[in-house]
């Protein structure tokens, strides 16, 4: 059992040469490229204070889980241990399932849920526990299995963008889809054409994947947060804003609540 904690015990080894920069870190670029997972979530927690207070505090769980993903990924790439690999992949799985339970549109709920999001969260948790066991038993196939989860997420995102009336939200959605596809492209060609990247001495596309997939992931969560308020409490009028300057659309997007009152108090 202790052997799974040893360096190099993972069956997965990415294209970057091992210990080429420092003897302490196996894949240096793949490790430090997770830095955005640590830097941005605390900022997002601050920016989403109003959203968490007046609509759904579960959004902060998602930002914290992104930090767990970054920590797990950094540990994995620094050690290439099997435990690090499993922690990395399980963190990604739980982010997907937490986001699904938080943002899946109620109009798509099956009838047996009765519109109950807590019940959906329970089923998602059971699925996550069962999937955790599968990921532990089949570590070689995990990365490809997790990659397929991005497909329905992007499909639902595109479906929601067709319904949105705010041009600013629509533009952000298009950028999110483009960055997601670029991230997946980097991941795939790093795996498939590693020899070519080594030949030109540029085996760093997996590091680019880390940066791009973080940008795509948090942007998707911002968009789904907007869609969620728009569907369940449209009277609160969610607004997409950017930090540090609201008129600079390449800043950090976040959602505010224009009318932060509870639905139960509408008649007052």
Walk me through the topology:
Layout: H1 28-32, H2 36-47, H3 49-54, H4 59-79, H5 82-103, H6 117-137, H7 142-147, H8 150-163, H9 167-192, H10 194-199, H11 205-232, E1 238-243, E2 252-257
Antiparallel strand pairs: 1-2
Helix pairs in contact: 2-4, 4-5, 4-11, 5-6, 8-9, 9-11
Pfam families: Ceramidase
Family: Belongs to the alkaline ceramidase family.
InterPro entries: ACER (IPR008901)
What do you see in this structure?
The protein has 268 residues and is mainly α. Helix content is 62%, strand content 4%. The protein contains eleven helices and two strands; from the N terminus they run αααααααααααββ. The protein has helices at 28-32, 36-47, 49-54, 59-79, 82-103, 117-137, 142-147, 150-163, 167-192, 194-199, 205-232; strands at residues 238-243, 252-257. It has a two-stranded antiparallel sheet with strand order 1-2. α4 (59-79) runs antiparallel to α5 (82-103), α4 (59-79) packs antiparallel against α11 and α9 runs antiparallel to α11 (205-232). The longest helix is centred in the C-terminal third of the chain and has 28 residues, at 205-232. The termini are far apart. Residues 263-268 have low confidence and may be disordered. It is a multi-pass membrane protein.
């Amino acid at each position: 059992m202790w052997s799974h904690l040893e360096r190099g015990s993972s069956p997965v080894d990415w294209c970057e040469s091992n210990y080429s920069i420092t003897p302490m870190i196996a894949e240096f670029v793949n490790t430090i490229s997770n830095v955005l997972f640590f830097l941005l979530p605390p900022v997002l927690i601050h920016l989403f204070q109003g959203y968490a207070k007046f609509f759904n505090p579960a959004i902060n769980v998602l930002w914290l889980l992104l930090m767990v993903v970054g920590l797990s990924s950094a540990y994995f790439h620094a050690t290439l241990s099997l435990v690090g690999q499993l922690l990395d992949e399980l963190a990604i799985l739980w982010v997907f399932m937490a986001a699904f339970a938080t943002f899946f549109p109620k109009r798509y709920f099956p009838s047996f849920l009765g519109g109950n999001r807590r019940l959906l969260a329970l089923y998602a948790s059971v699925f996550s526990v069962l999937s955790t066991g599968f990921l532990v038993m089949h570590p070689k196939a995990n990365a490809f299995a997790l990659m397929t989860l991005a497909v329905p997420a992007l499909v639902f995102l595109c479906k929601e963008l067709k319904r949105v009336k705010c041009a600013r939200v629509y533009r952000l959605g298009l950028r999110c889809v483009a960055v997601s596809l670029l991230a997946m492209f980097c991941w795939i060609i790093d795996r498939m054409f590693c020899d070519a990247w080594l030949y030109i001495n540029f085996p760093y596309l997996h590091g680019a994947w880390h940066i791009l997939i973080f940008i795509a992931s948090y942007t998707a969560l911002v968009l789904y947060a907007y869609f969620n308020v728009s569907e369940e409490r449209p009277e609160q009028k969610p607004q997409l804003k950017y930090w540090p300057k609201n008129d600079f659309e390449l800043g950090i997007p976040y959602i505010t609540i224009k009318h932060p009152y509870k639905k139960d108090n509408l008649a007052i």
